[in-house]
Amino acid sequence: MVLKNKLAMGIAATMLVLPLAACGSNNETTNNQPANNAETKTNEGANNAANTGGETADAGTKLTGDFEIQYFVGGYGDAWWKKVIADFQAANPELNIKALGGPKINEQNKPRWIAGTPPDFVYIDGPELNDRQLVEDGQLEDLTEWIQTATNVDGDKIIDILAQAPQQYDSKIYNIPLVLNSWGIFWDKALFAEKGWTEPTDYQSFLDVSEKIKAAGITPFIHTGKYPYYINGAFLFPAIVSANNNDYTVLQDMAANKVEAYESPAVMTALNKIVELRDKGFIDKGSVQINHTDSQMLFLQHKDAFIANGLWLPNEMSKDVPQGFQFGFIPSVGQDNGGKIVANTSTATVAIAKNAKNKDAAKAFLQFIFSKAQASQWAELSGAPSNIKGDISASNAPSHVKDAAKYLTDANTVVIPTITYNADVDKAMQDASAALAAGTIEPADWVKRVTDAVKKAAK
After folding, report:
1. Which residues on neighbouring strands pair with residue 415, listed in sequence order?
2. CA gyration radius for the chain?
3. d(CA 12, CA 229)
4. Residue 276, Cα to own-chain centre: how many angstroms?
5. Longest Cα separation, the chain
6. How far apart are the first and last CA of the chain?
7. How far is CA 8 from CA 113, 130, 229, in A?
8. Each residue's pLDDT tens digit, 335-392
9. Distance of CA 448 to CAs 263, 277, 452, 453, Å?
10. Is residue 419 a contact partner of residue 252, using CB atoms and an 8 Å limit?
11. pLDDT in tens, 228-270
């Protein structure tokens, strides 16, 4: 799942119900899902509304007119979107809902955003959309006051049931996290059991088992070289936090374009771990030119034992997972022996366009989707965590999602809140990490490249 780029160059439960502060965030995504029609009018689903609390928060107000919803289809699929839109349509029969969804919907709708005639409601995920860029370009409705008192269709205050609070931009809220993803490292539990390999719990155990994997003729580690934010999100950023005494504010300082943060010893320590993996021959040399689905396929075929990815992976590759394959998952492997697990979370958010023509329907839809019923449906239909607090142990969520929940709810886990970097700086980090893993640059070069981009962005 490939996450979000700039909108305007012109312009990641389950609703995993976690008490915490992409497919594929940090911020960029593509997918292998078949394209949907760019516009689908949703009029079916009347039989489903009763199961989801089928009325808007303002029960006495009928929603009418046209209401457009833009949603990207990536690793999480589109089953939940089709279901929730059908439910909302059944609850509001006089509303004319137009669902604009598909793998290329962001690109298709880009001219509308530039022209100031966007859809009313947007799910911010996938290429061509970057939440920070949307905010900076004045494209999103200010929800700061509304979210303080807004309740969902069950009467719960939305802000109180969110596992991760909305990100603020100059003390303002413009978008609300719907999905709560964790980056991390995956492997096949069945393969490890068959070979007698020990599952990693820290950096040294990761190195030790990688030696055995390499000796068995399998490449230990693969990443998505065409989308290097995968290795950044799943390996580099957690390793930086571990090296910074489990303090994730170093990443927030990086996002604030503080040059000294990029020059910190913690960054250099983490970069040197990538170099160690590279120099030991643990990184698949084909990674540099490979995309997310191709790398995931090699992983499923046991050409590579570990892959850096997000929790959408099993769902995104569901049609290709071999029989007996059992996904193992840990949020981080960069910590020292006895060190805390570091979970680098990412979110995909939802928002209302500032120029939306039907803001009443858009706000009602927000109240509708942030409910426990829809949280449960999200978990079952997307195979991924979302952002509403609750216990998912008895749900039908996939086992890897429940495993992730155990880490994310553990008091000893360091949970990194979603951090959005300047798009140009993020691209510089991605390119530098790909080059570092491939052996064409060294850590000092990585820092120079990125700080040059930081200085340019700060002008």
Report:
1. 343
2. 21
3. 12
4. 27
5. 68
6. 32
7. 9, 9, 20
8. 999 999 999 988 899 999 999 999 999 999 999 999 988 887 887 788 777 788 766 6
9. 9, 21, 6, 9
10. yes
11. 999 999 999 999 999 999 999 999 999 999 999 999 999 999 9
C-beta of residue 326 within 8 angstroms of C-beta of residue 188: yes
Eight-state DSSP code of residue 388? B
Query: Are the beta carbons of 345 and 180 closer than 8 angstroms?
Result: yes
Torsion of CA 399, 401, 402, 408, to 10 degrees: 150
Q: Would you call 111 helix, strand, or coil by DSSP?
A: helix
- Single-letter amino acid, residue 271: L
Using CA atoms, how far apart are residues 361 and 366, in angstroms rounded to an integer?
9
CA–CA distance, 296 with 309 (Å, rounded to integer):
9
Q: Which residue has the tokens 């303080």?
A: 148
CA–CA gap between residue 49 and residue 175 (Å, rounded)? 25
Q: Which residue has the tokens 């839109």?
A: 85
Tell me the DSSP string of 351-362.
EEBTT-S-HHHH
Cβ(208)–Cβ(346) below 8 Å: no
Q: What is the DSSP letter of 285?
A: G
Pairwise CA distance, residues 420 & 346, whole Å: 9
Q: Do residues 182 and 247 touch, judged by C-beta distance below 8 A?
A: no
Residue pointed to by tokens 């497919």: 23
Q: Where are the beta strands (DSSP E) in 195-318?
A: 219-222, 304-310
Domains (range + CATH), the chain? 40-181+346-416 (3.40.190.10), 183-343 (3.40.190.10)
Q: Which residues of 148-167 are buried (b: 16+ CB within 10 A; e: fewer)?
A: eebbbbeebebbebbbbbbb
The number of beta carbons lying within 10 Å of the beta carbon of residue 11 is 18
The first and second tokens of residue 445, run together, are 């070069």
Residues 6+ apart with CB under 8 A from 185: 200, 206, 234, 235, 306, 307, 308, 309, 329, 330, 331, 332, 333
Distance, in Å, from the CA atom of 11 to the CA atom of 9, rounded to the nearest integer, reads 4
| Tokens 């930081």 sit on residue | 454
Residue pLDDT, tens place only, 176-208: 999 888 999 999 999 999 999 999 999 999 999
Residue of 94, 181, 168, 182 whose CA lies nearest to 135: 168
The residue to which tokens 């893993």 are assigned? 437
Question: pTM for the complete prediction?
Answer: 0.72
DSSP states of 34-90: PPPPS-EE----TTTGGGGT-S-SSTT----EEEEEEEE-STT-SHHHHHHHHHHHH
